């Protein structure tokens, strides 16, 4: 473990010189254009703070001065922030309602820096005003209970993205780790219809293959997979098959590639793995339907040894709770060690440029694709 920690600490501090690129090598013309950068699933909290602070409204969910400074310096304009019940104890509906209220209050409190996103125009406004657009989203729809009309309650509270399942099963169907691969249930169809009616993005991340295919076919609006990888590149349950990716694109949707352990099998993934998944997704979906959803935050880790100890505890707890997915390991960090910190989005642009992707395509990946799909659903 010591050797791995040493490696991860040095890699996390490294620049794209690893790839033969100088640090801060993003094309000046691209930076000058100030392209929209939207994280389809992410956070901006200061990961160096104790977990209790990052999970608590009392401590602004870990969004301190450093978190705000790093996020703004990164060029980020908006991010889909997971709130509400995902798993664990407590009543899912009450927990989710409380989170909606808490996040609305926080955004209002920090209105000089944050802006609640209810429409695509709000993302553009956030960029113009130098603020960060916060897209409120759920990573589980279990809080709907037996009443699909609850969707409207959350829509009025500002929620704009709702994922149907987490890794396990719920009343809508099976998540990605459930062997039975049960598709969309009758209640699941009701929820999808209500999501469409209330102009909320249907998110199929973490879903089993069949519920993903069912929901994509049933939805009258384009759907998204906010954070995933490609099964053809790394054969793990959290990644999507080409069939799923293709159907999402055919329905006019969006696929965001994450920076998670599932980008590689049995080893620590790096930035090159992210590029491989993005390129495969483009080959399957087309360049108008691919972006990124990091499933991570912006500030860089200061104390890697402490972080690794916390990661060991987290992986153990997730396994004990039955919510972990194959590929989650205590010696593989849930981010890309050579693509971290306030320059990570520009470094991603650098890598794509070096691979021969055009500036227009890179702008689509950075945020334009997500914005277009969201605009069509939220309007």
From TrEMBL:
The molecular function GO annotations come to: metallodipeptidase activity
Please name the PROSITE patterns in this protein's record.
Answer: RENAL_DIPEPTIDASE_2, TAT
Report the protein name in the record: Peptidase M19
Q: Name the keywords, alphabetized.
A: Signal
Per the record, the domain of life is Bacteria
**Signal peptide annotation:** 1-25
Q: List GO BP terms, alphabetically.
A: proteolysis
Is Methyltransferase there in the keyword field? no
Please name the Pfam families in this protein's record.
Peptidase_M19
Q: Where are the transmembrane segments?
A: none
């Amino acid at each position: 473990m010591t050797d791995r920690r040493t490696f991860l600490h040095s890699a996390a501090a490294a620049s794209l010189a690893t790839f033969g690129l100088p640090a801060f090598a993003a094309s000046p013309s691209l930076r000058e254009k100030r392209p929209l950068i939207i994280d389809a699933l992410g956070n901006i909290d200061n990961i160096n703070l104790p977990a209790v602070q990052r999970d608590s409204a009392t401590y602004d969910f870990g969004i301190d001065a450093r978190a705000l400074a790093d996020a703004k310096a990164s060029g980020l304009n908006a991010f889909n922030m997971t709130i509400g019940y995902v798993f664990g104890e407590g009543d899912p509906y009450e927990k989710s309602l409380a989170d909606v209220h808490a996040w609305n209050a926080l955004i209002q409190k920090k209105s000089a820096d944050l802006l609640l996103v209810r429409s695509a125009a709000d993302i553009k406004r956030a960029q113009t005003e130098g603020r960060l657009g916060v897209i409120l989203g759920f990573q589980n729809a279990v809080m709907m209970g037996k009443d699909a009309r609850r969707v409207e309650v959350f829509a009025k509270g500002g929620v704009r993205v709702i994922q149907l399942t987490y890794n396990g099963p719920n009343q809508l169907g099976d998540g990605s780790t459930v062997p039975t691969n049960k598709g969309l249930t009758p209640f699941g169809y009701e929820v999808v219809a209500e999501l469409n009616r209330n102009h909320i993005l249907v998110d199929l991340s973490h879903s089993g293959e069949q519920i993903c295919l069912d929901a994509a076919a049933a939805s009258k609006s384009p759907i998204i997979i906010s954070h995933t990888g490609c099964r053809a590149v790394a054969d793990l349950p959290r990644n999507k098959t080409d069939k799923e990716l293709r159907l999402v694109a055919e329905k006019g949707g969006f696929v965001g590639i994450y920076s998670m352990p599932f980008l590689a099998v049995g080893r620590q993934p790096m930035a090159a793995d992210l590029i491989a998944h993005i390129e495969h997704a483009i080959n399957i979906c087309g360049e108008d339907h691919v972006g990124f959803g990091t499933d991570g935050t912006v500030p860089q880790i200061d104390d890697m040894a402490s972080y690794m100890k916390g990661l060991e505890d987290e992986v153990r707890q997730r396994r004990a709770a039955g919510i972990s997915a194959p590929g989650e390991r205590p010696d593989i960090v849930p981010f890309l060690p050579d693509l971290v910190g306030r320059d990570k989005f520009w470094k991603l642009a650098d890598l794509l440029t070096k691979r021969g992707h055009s500036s227009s395509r890179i702008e689509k990946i950075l945020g334009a694709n997500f914005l277009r799909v969201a605009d069509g659903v939220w309007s």
